[in-house]
Specification:
The chain has 4 helices and 21 strands. By secondary structure, the chain is of the alpha+beta class. It has 3 domains: 91 residues, conserved putative lor/sdh protein from methanococcus maripaludis s2 fold; 93 residues, Elongation Factor Tu (Ef-tu), domain 3, CATH 2.40.30; 112 residues, Helix Hairpins, CATH 1.10.287.620. Strands 2, 4, 7, 9, 10, 11, 12, 13, 14, 18 and 19 form an 11-stranded antiparallel beta sheet that branches. Helix 3 runs antiparallel to helix 4. The chain is rod-shaped. The two termini are 85 Å apart. The N terminus is likely disordered.
Length: 416
């Protein structure tokens, strides 16, 4: 090659290198001067392009959808409780003594004021009543005796006064001595005193008669109280003593429960105290196979139990089913809050980038991510306070396999 050609090639190569270097510098300066917004847009475009290219490169994900719907959401507190008898009686002896008989056993049906329950010391009390009756008879006789004595004294006084009148007439005629008149006058005064004394004896006898009557009534009452009848209607739930045992006042012999009116009782943690309002708060309960609904709270304890930090709540159940009996276990749900809202299946809500989201299916057959604000949860459904409206179909199966823009294929629709 000639020297002139070599010189020309060298010059051309240098020009090419210079052009390439200049282009590289321009590109570097342009990249370094880009704003953060430009970078974010570029990254988003790259991700979208990546997702689109990935979606285009793989088959659509099979999903199932469920329609969001209006429903009732409740905040519930589940607690184990008990069924209690609203009316019950621990029946003890009115008159202390040995139990003669116990007429009922556990499970027996009793009627208020009619059914005999037990009796204490009947023989002793019968004898005491008989003695009191005799004392009453004696007091009545004593009154009649004093009244007869009064009549006798009054007759004697009348006769003495008549004699005194005649003696005075005879004295005026000097037919008798003055001493006889004075003696007769003294006898009249004595008889007048006897009348007053007899009247006092009658008053005393009458008071003693009234006392005897009261004693007889007490003895009769004690005898009557020795036989105890049922104070309320219901069933005997406990028989606590047997014949021959001592029955003291205040010591129960039997317990009666009235099963026609029962109440549910639960103990609620203290932090819910201000959220439970009698008459407004409701509860539902399951007792065996029986479901009791819409029972308003009828009682809230005025204080919190200091050891367990709980308070008692009760609800009445009038005419309960046969299975709802005192002592039964109740699974209670206390309804703290209840409101209507838009609900979706709980499984449809997933976490993405620290947010709660659901996925819907766009018109182009791709997944669309919706950020949502959650509320209450009821029976596996989540309340959506904001982000999805009623009637929207959300992905409820396969949602963990999709993201924004993922191609999907709906294989099942629920709630349409």
């Amino acid at each position: 090659m000639s020297r002139a050609k070599q010189t020309l090639l060298a010059a051309g190569g240098g020009i090419v290198l210079a052009v390439v270097f200049a282009a590289a510098m321009v590109a570097w300066n342009a990249h370094g001067a880009a704003t953060p917004e430009d970078k974010a847009a570029e990254n988003s475009a790259e991700r979208s392009a990546s997702v689109s290219s990935a979606s285009a490169g793989r088959p659509a994900v099979a999903v199932a959808t469920t329609v969001a719907r209006e429903m009732l959401f409740e905040e519930r507190l589940s607690i184990a409780g008990s069924v209690l008898a609203k009316r019950f009686a621990l029946v003890s002896a009115r008159v202390p003594g040995t139990l003669d008989q116990v007429f009922v056993d556990a499970g027996d049906v009793v009627e208020a004021g009619t059914t005999k329950l037990f009796q204490t010391d009947s023989l002793k009390l019968e004898q005491a009543a008989a003695i009191a009756r005799q004392q009453l008879t004696v007091a009545e006789c004593s009154v009649r005796e004093k009244q007869a004595l009064l009549e006798k004294t009054q007759v004697a006084l009348e006769q003495a006064l008549a004699d005194l009148t005649r003696y005075r007439q005879l004295r005026e005629q000097n037919a008798i001595a003055q001493q006889i008149v004075e003696h007769q006058a003294a006898q009249c005064r004595q008889l007048e005193t006897d009348v007053r004394h007899t009247q006092s004896l009658i008053e005393l006898a009458q008071a003693q008669l009234e006392q005897a009557r009261l004693n007889y009534r007490i003895a009769q009452k004690d005898l009557s109280d020795s036989l105890v009848t049922a104070p309320i209607s219901g069933r005997v739930s406990l028989r606590l003593k047997e014949p021959g045992e001592m029955a003291a006042a205040g010591t129960p012999v039997v317990r009666i429960d009235d099963g026609s009116l029962v109440e549910l009782s639960v103990f609620v943690p203290a932090e819910y105290y201000d959220r439970v309002q009698p008459g407004a708060t409701k509860l539902r309960a399951r007792v065996g196979s029986v479901l009791l609904t819409d029972l308003p709270v009828t009682f809230k304890s005025p204080t919190v139990e200091s050891r367990l930090r709980t308070f008692q709540v009760k609800a009445l159940v009038d005419a309960p089913p046969a299975e709802v009996v005192p002592g039964a276990l109740a699974q209670v749900e206390l309804i703290l809050t209840a409101r209507q809202g838009v609900g979706v299946p709980g499984a449809a809500v997933v976490q993405r980038d620290g947010q709660s989201v659901v996925f819907t299916v766009g018109p182009d057959g791709t997944a669309r991510r919706k950020a949502v604000e959650l509320g209450l949860e009821t029976d596996g459904w989540r309340e959506i306070r904001r982000g999805v409206s009623a009637g929207a179909a959300v992905i409820s199966m396969g949602q963990s396999m999709v993201d924004e823009g993922t191609a999907v294929r709906v294989v099942e629709e629920a709630g349409r």
